[in-house]
């Protein structure tokens, strides 16, 4: 599927704000690819599609995961919003014709991250958090600047703030999010 066609389809499946966010992540991922010697085209495509399942019903997200035998964890059942990452991977492949395994994997882990991520995984994880339309996170200015000099440390700082945020919200922390933080914590001072 051509990028133009993907955009048209996404615009219909997402609400206006989510589509704007998606374009922000696409361009930001492209910039981070430039700064890290990764394929700009692939990073932009991952950014464009990363939230493609965000606006689906919980039932539909579960259905997509079940179809591909993807494990659904307890935390995902109690916080079904988390499922848009795994379901997004399935949808990107089936509905948008993405075959590139690095892109599909980056979409799969974009919300919780995972230990020892690949370069595209980290680019997408960071771009999602710092794209220009985001405004709610603390330390955004600092983290945006850091993103272009130390990607691993940026991943660590984002997870640190996310876990703090979830603790104040009494939101259940996905074990994967904690495992990801534990792995990347070494990159903080
Ligand atoms: O889909 P986006 O909003 O663009 O971004 P995202 O896929 O990174 O999801 C961010 C949301 O997910 C944010 O509200 C925090 C939440 N989140 C991230 N890690 C966890 C989590 N929620 C729970 N319950 N547990 C987690 O470990
Ligand atoms: Fe997301
Ligand atoms: Fe994120
Ligand atoms: Fe996102």
Protein model, in words:
The chain is an all-alpha fold and 189 residues long. The chain has one domain: Hypothetical protein af1432. It contains eleven helices and no strands. It has helices spanning 3-13, 16-36, 40-49, 58-67, 74-78, 84-94, 101-108, 119-130, 140-147, 151-168, 175-184. The chain is globular. The protein starts with a helix and ends in a 5-residue tail after the last helix. The mean pLDDT is 97. One fe (iii) ion (FE) is lined by residues 110-111, 125, 128-129.
Describe the structure using short key phrases.
189 residues; globular; Hypothetical protein af1432; binds 2'-deoxyguanosine-5'-diphosphate
Offer a concise description of the structure.
The chain is mainly alpha-helical and 189 residues long. It is built from eleven helices and no strands.
Write the layout of secondary structure elements.
Layout (H helix, E strand, L loop, with lengths): L2 H11 L2 H21 L3 H10 L8 H10 L6 H5 L5 H11 L6 H8 L10 H12 L9 H8 L3 H18 L6 H10 L5
Helix pairs in contact: 2-3, 2-8, 3-7, 3-8, 4-6, 6-7, 7-8, 8-10, 9-10, 10-11
One fe (iii) ion binds next to helix 8.
| CATH-level-2 architecture | Orthogonal Bundle
Bound molecules: 2'-deoxyguanosine-5'-diphosphate, fe (iii) ion
**Structural class designation:** mainly alpha
CA(first)-CA(last) distance: 44 Å
> Regarding CATH, which class?
Mainly Alpha
The proportion of strand residues reads under 5%
- DSSP, total strands: 0
Rg is 15 Å
Number of contiguous helices: 11
In round numbers, the mean pLDDT is 97
Tally of structural domains: 1
Question: What do we call the CATH homologous superfamily?
Answer: Hypothetical protein af1432
User: How would you sum up the major sheet?
Assistant: none
Report low-confidence residues grouped into runs of 5 or more.
none
Estimated helix fraction: 55-70%
Shape: globular
